[in-house]
Amino acid sequence: MIRALTGYSTRNPWKVITLWVVLGISLALLSPMLLARVTQSQTGDFLPKSYDSAAALRIAEENFGMRPDATTVTVLVARTDGQALTAADQQRVEAEAAKLAQRRVVMPRKPDEPAFLVPDRSQTPRVAPAMVAPDRGFELLSVELTGNAADEGVQGVYRAFRDATRAQFTDAGMRTGFTGGLADAVDTADSHRTAATVGSALVMGLIVLLNVLVFRSVAAALLPLFAVAMIGSVAGGAVAVAATLTGLKLDAGTPGLVSVVLLGIGVDYLLFLLFRFREHLRARPEQPAREAAAQVTARVGTAITSAALTIVAAFATLGVASFGQFRSLGPAIAVAVLVMLLGSLTMMPALLAACGRGMFWPSRSLRRQPGEGFAARFGTLVARRPLPMLLAALALLGALAAGMTGIRMDYGLGGAGDRTPAAATAAEISRTLPAGVSDPTSVYVVTTDGTTLTPGRLDGLSHALTQVEGVGKTGGTVLNGDRRAARIDLYLTADPQSRRARDLASGPVRAAVAAHTPAGTSAHVGGTAAIFADISTAVDHDLSIVFPVAAALIALILLLLLRSLLAPLVLMLSVGLGFAATLGAATLLFQHGLGEPGVSFTLPLVLFLFVVALGTDYNILITDRIREEMQRPGPPRAAVARAVRHTTPAIATAGLVLAGSFATLAATPGSEQVAFALTLGILLSAVVLSLVLVPAVAALLGRALWWPLRQARHHHRAEPAPEPYRVPVP
């Protein structure tokens, strides 16, 4: 199958390239519209229905008209002179709020942007007075908008509403402040916009610069980006189509994460092909370029396929997770990687066949055999002194892994440390009102015996909730239209995104609800704190399932690829050490060093999948080359030295590119931990595991690495061993 795909692509390169370009451009235009239809707004909607906060969400939607895609902004209105609000001031504030509630906010559009490509998020917000501060220093307005807070269109609507509201109250002699999830997301995004732009430009520059330094070629520097852009566009469209057909809802951050993954692995795969193509052309200068491209891509295509299927298998295991955000992320990345694999076996070989030796123009390195360089000396060092190199690698990984001591999970939303206008407004509110006033924890009560509810029937529950330590204030009992459901809002003294708020909601508040719910009714606790308390439970459950399932699938793929029992065990142990070392380093830096509450709750799972799956790519490449070299005459350690010499440039360059891609996530608010951990994890996988630990073990074990199969010792028939030459590394 692999040879058929690569063979057809190298025989018909321009047809294949044209097809990918047409698909890429078409889906690049359509993907934003398709993805908008399959993106889910509320984090709580990803919870299974059996969780308490998920049941509370359903009651809020069915009985109190809460829109499932609603996002709330709290507006602070105060006098510009700092004086207390008078009765006339309060009437003026509420009159202006009524005007805002009748005004439609039009979503800003980019110049010349086709209207049909981007969903229109224009809307009329719901605006209502919420409460007045005890010292009458300000009044709060509650503003409800629809749409995901990460959606650019929704963010544009919020900016337009914010600016109009600010101007309107300024004319009335008032000042305003805005806070809430959407306000904080927009403020944080605005403050990080320059960093994100610069970060993306630096990654593109890094890829081009590395390729120019390594290949001394214009085409080799630019074509990887072109190919990955086209294939990535098709992959994004495929993810949206697959989600539409299956009814799967994606988290708003999934498309961005998919893009980063595809950029990294796509450039990796093309680099693997480019290095082997150059090596082959140097060894056989008389061979036609298309024939060389066909042979190289068929040979490397096997390793690429195994590497890609490892990633697919790892992420596909997320399909068994109970938390919907994980359950949708896994299949989305799996589909995208499958498309990238198809592109690696078709478009990339077609590019090599179409460009031929011109791929390395204007470099003349193909015309000469360079002498031995760093890669050759490094390979010799690992092969001659495998035990000291192995012990050094284990010492480094062990020291970093020790950082996991005392690790804690942080279920905050991230970005809380940013000094944004929204954070400043929240701080001003919390000085006179409970911290949770802009994001209350709500208790929902519904009848189960067919009777109706009255405030008096719920007095006992309401009173019990006011006695819970950490509940700063309790709102009045609100009944729905048919009086079969009620809501009691609790304003916690803790930040709704903090660990203390989650502990309050899941502990004392739920205990009070369970003890004082009237007979004939059922009650559920909802709100941000309760949702994230339940998410923590769901994530702990998923980790215990996904880790072993993913490890088993990866081990099975390695077993089929390497046809050995011992080699897959070595690779799995090495990537396990890499995972532990990376998580330990993140814990050392963020929890112990910077004093954060803990590591992000998504980090262990995402890190496990990325470091184990993507890091296994490099292990597969080096192990496959070691096996190939051991099939040639000579001692095993000489084979290891040759394998390291030939693969060091490809793995080092690919690792730097992938690490650079992940580093750009640091410009995304709340993703600093993930960016650091993935960047370090990939570097450890590429340099320490693939170029030191695995080759050192192979040098120590020799051909016994392939036990129980006996490794052939005759010459390799596919192609002759090239003469020693120097391969530059970045």
TrEMBL record:
In which broad location class does this protein mainly occur, judging by the first location in its UniProt entry? membrane
Q: What superkingdom heads the lineage? A: Bacteria
Q: Where is the SSD domain?
A: 244-354
Q: Where in the cell is it found?
A: Cell membrane
* The entry's keywords: Cell membrane, Membrane, Transmembrane, Transmembrane helix
Give the similarity note.
Answer: Belongs to the resistance-nodulation-cell division (RND) (TC 2.A.6) family. MmpL subfamily.
What name does UniProt use for this protein? MMPL family transporter
Highest classification ranks of the organism: Bacteria, Bacillati, Actinomycetota, Actinomycetes, Kitasatosporales
